[in-house]
Amino acid sequence: MTRLRPNQTLRLLRDGAPAVGTWLQLHSIHATRLLAAQGCFDWMLVDFEHTPVGHDTAAHIFSTISDLTQGRITPLARVATGSIDHIKQALDAGSQGVIVPMIETAADAEAAVRYARFPPLGERGAGGLAPHLGFGVSRPEYIASVNGEILVGVQIETIAGFENVEKILEVPGIDLVLIGPNDLHVSLGLPAKFWSDEPEFRSAVDRVVAACREAAVPVGMVCRDAAAAKDRIEDGFTFLGLGSDAHFMLTLAGQQFGELYDLEEPAETWCNLVRLTTDATNDPAR
């Protein structure tokens, strides 16, 4: 009988319960430890796609999460691309699941699943030095038992992706479909946003959600704040990304600064506010 610690996020998704997590963009081991210790999230994700992080730092972050929380919080990675090297390196660094961006075809999805599984279900290599430690077992037991505990999520964020979503969902082994709202908006010729009522965007989202419901595959969304996350849960999303470490820092700093100087909150988000221009002064009104 295996002693492998279960993947908490996969357990929640398979039970149809919400799994709420956050993006890690600052890649600070100390900040990750403090945030993980609060116990606010089901998963915490290192973003290899859009933020600069090395595998050495990522490995420390993954182990910090798994060691400190003993499986309560799942360390995940969004890889830069769905190639075998990116997926195997993220998993060998200690990630317990991968989100693969820009999936547009069933072949893309099939490759992602194959690269994340050990034979006979895939072609992942068995040479990882330490990923078994995050599951609390020996390396042989990890290799023999972990296939069912590694989350494989595919990200739908382009016109081609949502137009092929039904075919993509025919691929065995997909644990999650994550809609990428910013890139989906851009792909549709719209300004990047976490959510909008633009008809083209809502139509694409509705198609993905309906296809996931038909295939009994959980569907996820990244959310700007708790209010948006509550709305998405009501819409049937069960994998919710709530902000990021950078978002939390910049938002609270902006809110406190605005309160101190009686400034109006920006229309979009404090995170996008850049005040240090070439003509900047210490005048808060500028």
Automatic annotation (TrEMBL):
For the keyword S-adenosyl-L-methionine, the answer is no
Q: Which UniProt keywords apply?
A: Lyase, Metal-binding
Q: Which domain of life is it from?
A: Bacteria
| A Pfam family hit | HpcH_HpaI
Q: Where is the signal peptide?
A: none
Instruction: Name the residues that span the membrane.
Output: none
Q: Which Gene3D superfamilies match?
A: Phosphoenolpyruvate-binding domains
State whether keyword Metal-binding applies: yes
GO terms of molecular function: lyase activity
Please list the residue ranges annotated as the HpcH/HpaI aldolase/citrate lyase domain.
23-248
* Annotated family: Belongs to the HpcH/HpaI aldolase family.
The entry's protein name is: HpcH/HpaI aldolase/citrate lyase family protein
User: What high-level taxonomic lineage is stated for the organism?
Assistant: Bacteria, Bacillati, Actinomycetota, Actinomycetes, Propionibacteriales
